[in-house]
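User: I'm putting together a teaching handout on how sequence relates to shape, and I'd like one worked example. Could you take Tc1-like transposase DDE domain-containing protein from Oidiodendron maius, show the sequence you're using, and then write out its predicted structure as tokens right after it?

Assistant: Happy to. First the sequence, then the structure tokens directly below it.
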Amino acid sequence: GVSVHRYIKVLKEYIPTILETDTFFIYNNTQVHIAILVQEWFAKRDINVMDYPPFSPDINPIENL
């Protein structure tokens, strides 16, 4: 798996580019996504996120066949 610190490192690299566009940031409540450090990182930057339950069929196109 990915550690919280590795995930935050990736966020620091990609979030500035992502936020230049009209984008929704969605995560699926895995442990690294809901870690307190990650939640604080988003809050500190005033980034709103949308959460979905893990393995949510409504965002999995194959489920609509």
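A couple of points you could highlight for students: The mean pLDDT is 80. Residues 4 and 32 are 5 Å apart (CA to CA).
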